[in-house]
Amino acid sequence: MSDITETQNNWLSEDDLATARSRLPIVYVDAVPVRVDDLGTISHVGLLLRATADGSINREIVSGRVLYGERVRDALVRHLEKDLGPIALPRVPPSPQPFTVVEYFPNADISGFHDPRQHAVSLAYIVPVEGDCIPSHEALDLVWLRPDEVVTPTVAAEMSPGHGKVVRHALAHAGRPF
Amino acid sequence: MSDITETQNNWLSEDDLATARSRLPIVYVDAVPVRVDDLGTISHVGLLLRATADGSINREIVSGRVLYGERVRDALVRHLEKDLGPIALPRVPPSPQPFTVVEYFPNADISGFHDPRQHAVSLAYIVPVEGDCIPSHEALDLVWLRPDEVVTPTVAAEMSPGHGKVVRHALAHAGRPF
Amino acid sequence: MSDITETQNNWLSEDDLATARSRLPIVYVDAVPVRVDDLGTISHVGLLLRATADGSINREIVSGRVLYGERVRDALVRHLEKDLGPIALPRVPPSPQPFTVVEYFPNADISGFHDPRQHAVSLAYIVPVEGDCIPSHEALDLVWLRPDEVVTPTVAAEMSPGHGKVVRHALAHAGRPF
Amino acid sequence: MSDITETQNNWLSEDDLATARSRLPIVYVDAVPVRVDDLGTISHVGLLLRATADGSINREIVSGRVLYGERVRDALVRHLEKDLGPIALPRVPPSPQPFTVVEYFPNADISGFHDPRQHAVSLAYIVPVEGDCIPSHEALDLVWLRPDEVVTPTVAAEMSPGHGKVVRHALAHAGRPF
Asked: Where are the beta strands (DSSP E) in chain A?
């Protein structure tokens, strides 16, 4: 679907990317994958399970950077297919207007959203997925939780604080009070 | 899908509705039906052809009122299925945030959007439709036009001025420059 | 500022309004009054204190209906000036796109937003106010609370559940994580 | 107001910035400066006059990049003050949700928005300015045009095609039909 792959980007070496990350804000997309019913109401939120560097396990939404020359909607589809598999059938919204812009900083105090690696400016979207999902990239598993389950303290504690806030905001944006 | 029908509403007589329309703003939804590709990019906009009372033929988007007790998303699906048929498979967005609010007034000078019958406050959405469309309700036909065709003066002249503006705004909102 | 007053509307008798409220969704606006700093960051949220019919005291945001012939932005200014006084200097946003649409129903189960009197479809906006505020209409007082204070369980318990959700959503929309 | 200045960024040499611009999308903000009345209705749009490298003169909106460690709202205020002077009093909106995201590419065919220097992902906002404006940075002049003047072919021809589209979209977003 997306014809830009990470491979294409190999000429931007790890060193160069590290340098850029210490000097420029990086363009990201955050996608909250959801199952919806025939009326568009969210029935479930999809969370990936990943092992972190320190051995703990985190629940996460789909997130990744936008490559040079790549459109935002291409980046969304690329990251969704990388994480949810090639037949997830994500329904990327027609409009590029995100429901919010999340500003992640190495210093957690600036915005309340923390990313130790970089300053990322992330465009956040709710993306219904209609197909079969097979977590395919560094993810241990994918769970689908009801909106009322996602906002419980137990689940919130298993997510990074930033992703937990993005998910709760996504649900509020979708009219799910909490 | 929607369990509220116009029939249910018959106890609000035509007279009562006429009275209400002369005294209260009426809640409406405007839906711009679109075909999208796998990336969510709009490939075509759907316009209904209708005969007006004076015998002329107009191109229109889907539009109608929200009934008492009905959710906005139910109203969207009801009007889309009424106009595009029962297997149109509209993908109503998860969020109730409209891309704009259109204020139609009997006096065309107030907002630039005119409705001789009423003061309507209309929540406007872009709605991808994935199924087969069979114009089924008072419509002569349904045409699918490319974004560059929709904004031509010829097509614009065949639409009501208000609907033309809503469609152009929808395309701008979807990132289609013109 | 707004040249439409409730008085003008007196010909819609209380009886007629009651009848309409039992048959049609009513167009509302919800405004979350805020103080912002020079960067537009919310420093405080304004909450009105009102005595309810049963003698309890509630914290509330500004809310009210849109009149026949009135623009949404006129309704916002009218209600803000009615509740916060004539020199509150509300800065109504240039765009009519609300941050959310709140659907209040007599049946609390439909949307999670409850209004025993009516089915209201409310366009919700964040509105910075720059002037002096003098609660002037049926309000006992006006308090300005910091975002971290507004989301405490104590304050939440003093608001109607619906207004509490609208305020938390407004803060999330403004990028204030919680 | 903003405590991050271009000076601070000098350690990112022109060479390094040029390299980054050829490899990474750059985070930008586009601001459409407007004068509004007491109801928030746009009365005028502010356009800068600048001499381009080839000697022609262009009308432009405010636009510039977000620096490492800088919040989006700081970047907005910094660029607005740089272009409109220190007492322009821009009213940056409380929410980071832009009205659109503009994707500028060196290849004009990708999105219809062209920037020969870089791939920029620009968050676009409408920003009311309340103070005195003194064009202060590389601008020859600043003109305030009514919405109906801005959309004339004559004015459109004096703007870059991209900025012309952003301004028309901003006006549509603000409910100004055209």
From this structure: 26-36, 42-51, 57-60, 62-65, 100-104, 120-128, 141-145
